[in-house]
Amino acid sequence: MSNKHLFLKCGFLRAPFGIGVGRYVCQLQRVTIKFCKNHGGSLGVRHFLEHDLINYAKENPGVVVYVKPRRHRNPVIKAEYLNGETHWACVRNYSREDIIQWMELVKTQYHEGSAYRLLKLWYTEFPSIQGPWTPFTFKEPFANHTKFPNKMPSKTGQPTATEELIRLFKEQQEAEKLNGEDRVENSVS
């Protein structure tokens, strides 16, 4: 079993302050695309640079795009965010469409959620002073000290399940008696 999760950053997933309040602020600050001019693994990156880079830069004026050619290395997309985090992805042998999807992903994500070791499954900035909700939150207090089965009538006014079964059983017995009497009368006459 691996212990690599012990070396992950721990914390809580949080949205950056003010994102979507007032106006949207793209958290991506800069993208560096590193590629080789001759290597076959960089073909998709080169097609992206030739056909789609200008449109990407026009659509995202707040993002600085650096293009860095380097020899005999795998292509890499490196993203830097406003909170100081840096993420990179090796895009060797990716197609042009895959590069477009990666560029959209680094633009829309705020941090890499899979790189966090969560301290709790849920977290809130403003915890309730009343405590978390439980199924017993709005129950009557007398039910906490009641021994079951309880001889006291229920406070809801509805019969209990046991009382309902007893009533159905008695109705069934009465119906059988009436059917038996009808059969006896039919056979006598």
Automatic annotation (TrEMBL):
Organism listed in the record: Xylocopa violacea (Violet carpenter bee)
Chain ranges of the Ribosomal protein/NADH dehydrogenase domain: 37-110
The entry's keywords: Mitochondrion, Ribonucleoprotein, Ribosomal protein
Xref: SMART domains: L51_S25_CI-B8 (SM00916)
Mitochondrion among keywords: yes
Protein family according to the UniProt entry: Belongs to the mitochondrion-specific ribosomal protein mL43 family.
Subcellular location, record wording: Mitochondrion
InterPro entries linked to this entry: Ribosomal_mL43 (IPR039927), Ribosomal_mL43/mS25/NADH_DH (IPR007741), Thioredoxin-like_sf (IPR036249)
Protein's UniProt name: Large ribosomal subunit protein mL43
